[in-house]
Design brief:
10 strands; globular
Length: 238
């Protein structure tokens, strides 16, 4: 069995007195594309924020490469190969596309390899290459999503966390984003994908977790959950 890269154990997260995540266990193994699906407000984004250190844990632990990363800063995690594309993209609007991408490599000093990776990101996203000197704030939502993904890839992640990459995008752009997720995965990057579009996520993932009201209610091979009547009724509109 492949090495477990990321392990979440008994995770609890709260906002004020309200518990958003109520004791979650999940793991991501090397070479997998794992998806966490659920409706809006289920606790998916809170789980991602806790993993990357931007939300404190009430209880539980998070292990990355066999070591606890509880309380570690996001910058430390990027250096260790754990990168996140946040919900809402978070691009630097007053910087150019190229400058944004280079910010993704700020923990690296291998200039030749950084240039090589820039070329790789431009090959993955030709639209970014065409507009490399354009300010990020002048781009469409879909283009900003591509930029946020490209920026995360510039850190050479071992595990890429994607939080709602298709949110608010046109159907054509959603197709493009999922195509890129598949390409990145095919290149050997391990991915944890949080996504409201359950059908699209289950179609590309190896394994899946279903989250409801801060708890994981189902888990299994993605292909199996895709045909599960409970999942189809709750998330696929059947």
């Amino acid at each position: 069995m492949a090495q477990t890269l990321l392990k979440v154990k008994g995770l609890k997260v709260a906002y004020g007195g309200i518990e958003a995540v109520k004791g979650v266990d999940l793991e991501v193994r090397a070479g997998e594309l794992v998806t966490l699906i659920g409706s809006n407000g289920a606790g998916k984004t809170s789980t991602m924020k806790a993993i990357t250190g931007s939300l404190p844990l009430v209880n539980g632990d998070i292990e990355y490469l066999g070591q606890s990363i509880r309380g570690k800063g996001a910058w430390d995690l990027v250096e260790q190969g754990l990168a996140m594309v946040p919900e809402g993209r978070g691009v630097f609007t007053r910087m150019t596309i190229t400058e944004n991408l280079l910010m993704g490599a700020y923990v690296r000093s291998d200039k030749a390899a950084i240039d090589e990776d820039l070329g790789r990101v431009f090959a993955l996203f030709p639209r970014l290459k065409e507009r490399r000197d354009q300010l990020a704030g002048t781009m469409s939502g879909g283009e900003q999503q591509m930029l946020a993904m490209g920026r995360a890839l510039m850190s050479r992640p071992k595990v890429l966390l994607l939080d709602e990459p298709s949110m608010g995008l046109s159907p054509i752009m959603v197709d493009k984003i999922f195509e890129v997720v598949r390409d990145v995965y095919a290149q050997g990057v391990t991915i944890l994908l949080v996504e409201q579009n359950a059908s699209r996520a289950l179609n590309i993932a190896d394994r899946a977790y279903v989250m409801e009201s801060g708890l994981l209610t189902m888990t299994g091979p993605a292909a199996q959950l895709l045909v599960d009547p409970r999942v189809r009724a709750a998330y696929l509109g059947e």
